[in-house]
Structures are given as structure tokens and as C-alpha cells.
């Protein structure tokens, strides 16, 4: 799996950490970031679909 590095404001990191660990929804920060990224991309795909901006390749995969 590729690794990336991003700059994150402390406020976002603090909020993220509230959801990570034994009492949180996510096992670690990476898990939380991946889940958030997937959800955001799904929302963007839905918006693009409503506006007819998705490629034919995506539409074919969606129908499968």
C-alpha cells in the first residue's frame, strides 16, 4: 500500500484523535483517514453522478 504524507492542522488532528483508540471507532489514525477519504470520495461521486460528470468507465463499474 502506498504511503503519503500530509500536513494536518492541529485542530483536525485533535478531533481525529477523539475517534481513535480503545474508546474510539477507529483502531489508528491511518484507519480513520482511509475511512474518511473513502466516504468523502463516495459523496463526491454521488454529486458528480447527479451532474452528469462521471466517466463511462465509472458508470459501467457501477452497473456491474
From TrEMBL:
GO terms for biological process: regulation of DNA-templated transcription. InterPro entries: Arc_rbn_hlx_hlx (IPR013321), Ribbon_hlx_hlx (IPR010985). Coiled coil: none annotated. SUPFAM superfamilies: Ribbon-helix-helix. PANTHER family: BLL4998 PROTEIN, RIBBON-HELIX-HELIX PROTEIN COPG DOMAIN-CONTAINING PROTEIN. This is CopG family transcriptional regulator. It comes from Halarchaeum nitratireducens. The lineage of its organism: Archaea, Methanobacteriati, Methanobacteriota, Stenosarchaea group, Halobacteria.
Amino acid at each position: 500500500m502506498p504511503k503519503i504524507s500530509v500536513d494536518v492542522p492541529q485542530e483536525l488532528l485533535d478531533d481525529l484523535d477523539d475517534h481513535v483508540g480503545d474508546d474510539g471507532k477507529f483502531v489508528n489514525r491511518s484507519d480513520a483517514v482511509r475511512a474518511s477519504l473513502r466516504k468523502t470520495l463516495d459523496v463526491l461521486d454521488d454529486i458528480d453522478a447527479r451532474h452528469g460528470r462521471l466517466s463511462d468507465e465509472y458508470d459501467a463499474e457501477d452497473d456491474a
